Amino acid sequence: MLKTLKTALAGLALVGTAMGAQAADIVVGGKNFTEQQLLSSITEQLLEAKGYDVDNRAGMGSAAVRQAMENGQIDVYWEYTGTSLITYNKVEGTFSADETYAKVKEMDGEKGIVWLDPSKANNTYALAMRAADAKEKGIESLSDLAERVNNEGDLTFGSNAEFYARADGLKPLQDAYGFEFGRSNVKRMDTGLVYQALKDGQVDVGLVFATDGRIPAFDFTVLADDKGYFPAYALAPVVRQEVLDANPELAGTLNEVAAILNDDVMAALNARVDVEKVSVENVAAEFLKEHGLN
Questions:
Q1: Cα separation, 188 vs 166, whole angstroms
Q2: Domain shared by 8 and 78, yes or no
Q3: What is the CATH number of the domain that holds 44?
Q4: Last residue of a domain, one of 165, 192, 222
Q5: Which of 83-87, 92-96, 196-200 is predicted most confidently?
Q6: Same domain for 237 and 114?
Q7: Whether residue 87 is found in the same domain as residue 151
Q8: Could you say which of 68, 80, 242, 277 would form a disulfide bridge with 233 (CB–CB 3.0 to 4.6 Å)?
């Protein structure tokens, strides 16, 4: 009887060990730009501190990381609500931030992808000016910009080629606000060069991403999108349903990080890497330590 009991207990221990190993093996994905690399490293270090065995596969293209999640090749990554709505789910139209989140949560949920809590970091397109120049010209919003362009026609705009040409890019933005940069006033260049061109005064207005660290570092003012033209790109952790079922504590762990993030926090983290040239891993470790998460 005692031998039988010991055998049964040993068997249960082996099952428990196997289940624990399965539950503790997490593959973290991420896209191939600074913000995503930071979030992947933050997630990796945080989960390792919680006892998970983590495989970090950051540096993927947007379509590739999404496909990898749908195929079960990665378990966790950070996504933008607008990207899922427009790019992955092909939904058109204008929606509030809350509506966008609700739609992607529902649609992706049907595909076995769970959206956890959205952060207040919204990495959407934005137009920015040098702070001193914007103040001097009295431009605080896109409506102010439209008025200045219509009255003076003297401002130059730096844009990447994609935004200049895309169906939901510059032309419909101008239509929405009732203005138009002259053809010679638009300077097309690589995304990264826009920031330097704006800083150096080669253009007056530049296309930026709202959480880019160069915005505060270069003392830019982001113009208020007072008509709500740009879609919401709220940043949130997404997890495969079966992984979350096996590791329900993941939700609380990742939601704790999401609750800390906003545009200013994310921009400061990005600046540490892009401007101050600190490694992604060190910035991630600093963030976790600062907030008592490691």
A1: 13
A2: yes
A3: 3.40.190.10
A4: 222
A5: 196-200
A6: yes
A7: no
A8: 80
Supply the angle between the helices 34-49 and 263-274 in degrees, to the nearest 10: 100
Segment holding 245, helix H or strand E: helix 241-246
Q: Which of 234, 232, 212 is nearest to 222 (CA)?
A: 212
Range 123-150 average pLDDT: 97
Q: Which of 4-18, 50-64, 227-241, 257-271 has the lowest mean pLDDT?
A: 4-18
Q: Tell me the pLDDT tens digit for each residue of 153-170.
A: 999 999 998 888 876 789
Residue 3 pLDDT? 41
φ, ψ (nearest 5 deg) of residue 150: -65, -35
Say what the pTM is.
Answer: 0.82
* 118 and 239, same domain (yes or no): yes
Q: How far is Cα of residue 282 from the mean position of the Cα atoms in its chain? A: 19
Q: What percent of the chain has pLDDT over 90?
A: 82
pLDDT at 8: 42
pLDDT for 150 beyond 50: yes
Structural domain boundaries enclosing 15? 2-122+232-290
Regarding whether 148 and 43 lie in a shared domain, the answer is no
Given CA atoms 51, 285, 72, 120 in this order, what sign does their dihedral have? positive
Whether residues 24 and 95 share a domain: the answer is yes
Place of tokens 């966790």: 76
Whether pLDDT at 250 is above 60: yes
**Full DSSP string of 20-53:** HHHHTEEEEEEESSHHHHHHHHHHHHHHHHTT-E
Question: SS3 helix, strand, coil % of the chain, rounded to 5?
Answer: 50, 20, 30
| pLDDT level of residue 19 (50, 70, 90 thresholds) | very low
Asked if residue 25 and residue 113 are part of one domain, the reply reads: yes
Residue 227 inside a domain? The answer is: no
Residues 117 and 239 in one domain: yes
Residue linked to tokens 């991420």: 30
**How many domains is the chain partitioned into structurally?**
2
Structure tokens at 75: 């378990």
